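CORE FACILITY INTAKE
Project code: CF-77B
Contact: R.S. (postdoc)
Sample description: multi-component assembly, two entities in total
Requested service: structural model of the whole complex
Turnaround: standard
Below are the sequence entries exactly as provided by the requester. Do not edit them.
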Amino acid sequence: MWTLRPIHYLMVAPVHLLLLVFIFLPALYVGWLSLTHSTFGGPPEFVGLSNFVTLLGDRIFWRSFWNTLIVVNVVVYGELALGLGLALLMAGWVPFKRVVIAIILAPYAITEVTTVVMWRYMLEPDVGMINYALKSIGLGQIEYSTDPFTALMVVSVLAIWQHLPFTFLILYAAVTTIPSELIESAKVDGATPWQTFWHVTLRLILPAVFVALMFRYIFAMRIFSEVWLLTEGGPARMTEVLAVYLYRQAFRYHEFGGASATGWMLLLLSLVIALPYLRAMYVKLFRHV
Amino acid sequence: MRGWKHTILGTVAAAALAVTSSAAFSQAKPEKLVIMSHAVHKSAVTGEKGGDSSADWQKRNGVAVEWLTFGVEAVHERVYREASLASGTVDIAFILERYSGPQVARLFEDLGEYQKRDGIEDFEEISAGMRTAHTHKGKLIAIPFRHATHGLLYNQVYFTERGVAAPPKTMEALLELAEKMQYTRSDGTLVHGFITSFDDPSGVVDLMRAFGGDFITSDYRFVADSPGSLKVVHLLRNFFQKGILPKNVFTFKTEEVITMMQQGRAAMTNQPFGRYFNYNDAKQSKFPGEFKVTTIPASGGGIAPAKTSVWGMAIPANSKNKQLAWTLIKELSSKKATIAQAINGNGPVRISAYKDEGVRKLVPYADDEAAVLQGARSTVPGFENTQKAMDFFMEEIQQAMLGTKTPEQAMADLKKRVEPLLPK
């Protein structure tokens, strides 16, 4: 057991200073801005909670809110399931393992804009290869530009495809650190593969799962390019997510007060989702410290 | 001690004087003048065909011109952000009338005052409508530089294939033709009869105006529920459901329309006359030399009051080189420069440019475009909530096209949403 001395605080001070200057103070400024009517060409005017009231009464805000929740959950849990499956697969024997891992990681090296443009052309209704192939075999088409649900699912698939390597890497690293003796002991004790996974592997990689979940929740909550470049929130703003809603307010309507209020709502939503995981991580990792 | 004090004070004063005079000198003669614009303005000013219309000014003044170019939305966001600072680095900003409005007027110099002191050559020749589009709260905040006015562009090869001898003379004929031009070619290419951009209301508003309707009039009245406008909403819904408009038309920005036309996947569109060059460019188009452009016909005949947008040159109020910036604006607005810019592909704001032989040789649509300009109007007049009103318009139009609302309901809902935003 050791005690915290001034030197310890001094050593962590720089990182806290950075957080204070680049995260905390700007967040406070945005908080203040959210209480004002602010646009180009004039000083901000204090309006109290009016921006939040407007926001909560706007049906497009609520639609964006629900769309964000749907997409984020599909993306995060889809990625987790796939990432975990691939991590377990790769931990065993796989031919050309390095090549396969490189293939899994490849999408992460592509920019989001390139990814969306590429998929958008593949899904083009007249000449896109995916839609053309589907139509040729009588399966219809993926009509992301007219069907909001399909559009949100395409956005989710795109996001999973691109960000899977992040989750995979974290989980793969965790899986490969599990001592083989533990797995062998479970087998010797007569555990089935599912029991081994459930009672041994999963328990040991749980902290890594929480880290992956939390980071992906936070990143996915800000999902923007996939939606903006694929549908721009259409048709009829039915696929808009909160980041797109915020972008319109800030950069198209120049309503910085409303945009800041949206930013704070997004932050609160992220916190509400992240808190149980943060708590679980804290209990798992630091309760003995 | 006293001597020391004097020495220190003297040194400080000398240093201050040096700094001040250096600042004064740099204000009088900066090394460069910074212009923030869209790339199209840079190519209009510095293009090869017509020559660089800023070159003489740069030589005379010994000052270079630095261009910072961005996309349409981004350039306005950056310009307004820069102009809101206590001190700015942008000396001339190109702004589009529908992104402007009374709310940003205080960020820019009143160029009417500059014009009174040191006027632009034959200023009255620049259309009054274009000047009004950039006048807010009595301030002329930008000098018109470029217009992009819509015409009807069509693929002559497809017209011939479908036995169409000439472009339509009435809007009714155009709509019939759009249906006729919906076909699959022998090589398997699916041709859409008519396409338009859904990036903003301009493509749809052209059609509404052809039938006597509109979205918001220049005196800020909501008229998208008028019979002419409603007719177009019904028509778009019908075209969308029949497949004349592509399934993914809601995602169409200008670039998608250009690509579709260049690839021969659509027969007609309403876009700026200047796209004629993109469509006929052998490097980009499958049908170089086969695209023609004409005026958009009105219902019953004549020319429809198509959309025009007007870019203007403004001087941010926080520029350090306002007078110098004005001299460059004067230079770029001269008759000679306007012609050079037109040859570089710019939509000239002076009617005299259309009479120039050099322009006429390169711009076969000069007469048509000049004719349209007489009645052309901005998509919507500039006001504080222009962008929001345009977004609402596109949203309700799409609802009607998808069938989630009737056209009447969509326009009634639009009215409820837009009217509170309009200036009283």
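Facility notes:
- The domain at 150-307+382-421 of chain B is CATH 3.40.190.10 (D-Maltodextrin-Binding Protein; domain 2).
- The interface with chain A takes residues 73, 77, 80-81, 83-84, 103-107, 190, 246-251, 265, 384-385, 387-388, 391, 394-396, 398-399, 402, 404 of chain B (CB under 8 Å).
Invoice: internal transfer
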